[in-house]
Design a protein that fits this description.
Length: 164
Amino acid sequence: MKRAFGWVKQLALFIVFAIVVTGVMDIWRGKDIPRDNLPDIKGVTLAGSDIDIKTMSQDQAVLVYFWGTWCPVCNFVSPAVDTMSGMYPVVSVAMNSGPDDKMVKYLAHKGYEFDTINDSNNEIARDWSVLLTPTLMVLKDGELKHYTTGFTSLPGMWWRMLLS
């Protein structure tokens, strides 16, 4: 019993350490992202729907996912984003990933159902100073609440949405 308690204690310390380290890294990586006077993310999804993220975020938190079909890490993050899209509003911005018809086929092949704006010339990504993929942002009431880049797990996304 004492040994099991020791393992649980070590696991809890590791989890706390991981949360602190990833939180500090998120803050450092997000230092260049504007927090005030955020640029608009408005566009038309590949499905033909008009989207205005600031308006959407007035009712509830919105997960914004910058990614690319060419991004190897995105292959691991996108399925979790797709799962999140069944629970929360999710808008993805596909950076430099080709023409609309190619994107529609790619999303259908992968089975992804999240709303996607095709940012084929990276205008939206440039406006938001997004340089790395994948990048995840949580917006609530038109404000940037959370920002992270690189691999993010489903629980990590979920917690960010809950805390917003």
